[in-house]
Amino acid sequence: MNIADLRKSYEKAELSEDASHADPLRQFEQWLNEAIAAQVPEPNAMTLATVGCDLRPSTRVVLIKGYDARGIVWYTNYQSRKGQELAGNPFAALQFHWVELERVVRIEGVVEKTSDEESDAYFHSRPLDSRIGAWASPQSEVIDSRAVLVANAAKYGAQFLLKPPRPPHWGGYRLVPQAWQFWQGRKSRLHDRLRYRLEDTSWVRERLAP
Hints:
Elements: H1 24-37, E1 45-51, E2 57-63, E3 66-68, E4 71-77, H2 81-88, E5 91-98, E6 103-113, H3 116-123, H4 128-136, H5 146-160, E7 170-184, E8 192-199, E9 202-207
Antiparallel strand pairs: 1-2, 1-5, 3-4, 4-7, 5-6, 6-7, 7-8, 8-9
Helix pairs in contact: 4-5
């Protein structure tokens, strides 16, 4: 099959101004809850885009671990590529793609670290093997083989036993939204696309052509 011939007609739902929330966070919460209820695979997975000091963009999938009026939270290694890029350029973008619901949410804003208290609380809620893994993996660095990770996990497991502390290089980030977009697939490629942009302290909702 020619990949250019792959087609899908999007006809599951619609997104109108009248039926959407004036507050983008409420609209996001509604769609996230609907994705969870629909049991789509990993509804909490989101693509994180950052830009390095060389102006080259990079993306990876991370998992949302919290959200509120302050922003969207995830946790990772601060020394990873994304951590280094965020240290040099705190502006980033997130994207959720719930294929089964024919929906996309895009969020743009500035990123800040969560507090030590928030990072500690989440770290200690994780399974033991995940806490050890945070110590064992020098994320984004070149390693000789998987044996390096296995040896590191054994080393830190023996060192910390059942109570590994949070590594100083590991913790949370929060993206503070400055713009949201909600995309609902529609028939004939005439998709619904609503953007919310922050103007002073209020959200302005407007329709974009697909």
